[in-house]
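so the lab meeting is tmrw and i was supposed to have these ready like two days ago... anyway. pasting both below. for each one the top line is the aa sequence and the line under it is the structure tokens. i havent really looked at them closely yet so no promises
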Amino acid sequence: MASKILVVEDEREIADLLVAYIERAGMHVLRATSVPEAIMVHNQSAPDLVLLDIGLPGGDGLDVLAAIRRRAGTPVIMLTAVDDDVSKLSSFRIGADDYVVKPFNPAEVVERIRAVLRRASGEREPKRLSVGPLDIDLEARLVSCRGEEKPDSRLNLTPTEFEILAHMARYPRRAFSRAELLEAAAPGSDAYDRVIDSHLSKLRQKLVAAGCADMIEPVRGVGYRLWLENA
């Protein structure tokens, strides 16, 4: 069943952007734009996680956080333009699970949602990923490719190439934008997202050289995906 995410944000453009990315990640979104509405929707709908702005009509987002904590243990990520230590400390003391400052990368917000949901459910990050002939050891940071001509051939990847491949392997067949892949490989980087094309070109060459088919393919108008017919 898809996770229900309550987005509490009074700026429509920001809310629409978040909703688009969260729904694209396969989650269901509820919306609220004020303190009273946020508390009401939370009480009525029991979301799995709340994205919560601090500056809201009808009060303060911290009031919503406190109301949620009095009633439930719903994970809450603060999403706000308020970037000071007092607000951050107050949020965490009341019970926030994460704190994201605007402006933000919506793809990063989605990954933070996934991470908080995993922690809340007790789910742990797997130590290994296997997609078709690819075997990725996340702890040792090793990648091997079980090709027909070169069985168990190990790929010599740069740190950036490893992060890109591991991120794509977590969601095989999903199309990623260049910005999403850049954020996954180098969070907070101010590099142009087109630099990802160079990394992907070298990564695809290494996959082929290791004996694997060219598993990474471009998606017109979007970016790239790790593709297997039966993945």
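ok protien two:
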Amino acid sequence: MISLFTALIAKRTVATVSALLVIAIGCGAGIWQLGRAETKIALAANLQARQQMPVLNANQGPWTLEEANERRMNARGQYIPEAAVWLDNRPRPIPPSGSTSSQSGFYLMMPLRLEGKDEVLWVNRGWAPRNNENRETLPIVQTPNKVVSIEGIVFAHPGKVYELGGSKISAYEGKPRIEQNFDLMVQAKLHGWSQAPFILRELEVGADDGLLRDWAPLTSGVDRHYAYAFQWFALAFTGFVFWLISGLRQYKRQGFGNGHRGDQE
């Protein structure tokens, strides 16, 4: 058996190198996908543990990002709708039942002026669908014109998407803006106000305001990573089997037929 493999390798150098390359790529990508899945599971477990800690109160701060990150937080204040930022190209957190494609829309980022404090807290109020016929038409949402109490989870940012050219600071014109990404430092410079060093992703409270807040869990996509890992490992295995079978066929036609029979004669 050892001599057979030695012959398959020695007589088929190019094929062997190609097969090794396919196997290495397949195994490497498969291991990477498994690592991604394990990372998501660990992050979800850490998030769950932090959410079991006592609920923070934004009005009793100040809180640092390190203290509040991924923890539940209550906040009381009044929204400033004219300073809202609509984050474009955001998929619906959880697609409708039976749907296989993600629907694109906006995250509505809106500052909340905290009651009893000279500080603003940016809130990710939720997701709304985009008007496919006119991208500049913003969804209709309801914003209370009074002091409200909300609850959410603290994050460093609302998530980022690929953007050409990066963020640009423009003059604040007192009207909602459509952006690709959200930067707290940029907003602080635009408005010149004191604000919390994190954002609050609002949780579903049953409010009928035109926004969806059925946020996808951090473990979302773990099954997909496992499926991708299986595909990559299958590619590596297929590469090995193809190399082996094609080599055996060539060995029977040339190596066994010419070499062994020639020795016998």
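from a quick look at the 2nd one: The first strand starts at residue 56 and ends at 57. The helical segments are 2-10, 13-51, 65-68, 184-191, 222-264. will dig more after coffe
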